[in-house]
Input
Amino acid sequence: MVTLEGKIYVPQAQREATEAALVEHVALTRAEAGCLSFDVVPDSADPECLSVREAFLGPEAFAAHQSRVAYSAWGTLTKDFERQYEISGLDEPVTKDEILMAKALALADAASEVGEVPVGALVVLDGQIVGHGFNQPITGCDPTAHAEIVALRQAAQVQANYRLPGAVLYVTIEPCLMCVGALIHARVARVVFGAREPKAGALISHPSVVDHPSNHRFEIAEGVLRDVCGQRMSRFFSNRR
Output
C-alpha cells in the first residue's frame, strides 16, 4: 500500500477556485480503481493549508493517479502551489491478500452508501470469488445479515454445499461472535480481516476462537489494509454524530 500525507498551501487569491475544483478532484480520485482512501480537508491549525491523506493499493495505482492528476483541472490549477508531502510504500509489492481486501473495501463503501455500517466481505475458493456481501441488517430487516453471513450464503448456494472446505473469507472488520460461529459451521480454511473491532470482535479482541472447544479450526490473518479499513468505520460514525 502506498500512502501520502501532508499539506498543500493555497494562496488566498486562489482559495475560491481551489475549493470549487477540489469537489471534482476528490470524486474522480475516489473512483479510481486503485484508490483505497482519499481525503483533502482544511487544516485545523493553519487556514492557509489543506491537509491531504491518501492511500493507493500499490505503486502502479499511485503512478496512474499522479499521471491523471497532472493533466486534470486540479493539477493545472495547483501545479505551482507549495506542498509538503511524505510518501511511503513505493517499494512494497502488492500482495494477493491486499488485492482481495481492496475488493472487500469496495463492498464496505456500498454498505455506507445505503446507510449501513461499512463492512464488506468476500469468499474465495480455488482462486475464485464465489460469494460477496456487505452489511445490510437495516435495509434487509434481518439481524443476521452481516457482510460475512451474506457472503457465506452466496458462496454456499454457488457451491451447492453448506460446507466450504478450503475457502478463505476476507472481511474489512474483525467478525463478531455470530459470524465466527457461521465460519466454523461452514468449515472455512482461513479468515483474513483488516481492522480489529474492540467491542464485538470475536477472533482477537475478545477470547480467541482458538480457546473455545470446537471440531473445526481455521487460520486467522489480521491487519491487511488495517488503517484504511479502520478509517472507513471512523468516518462513518463521525458523520452520524
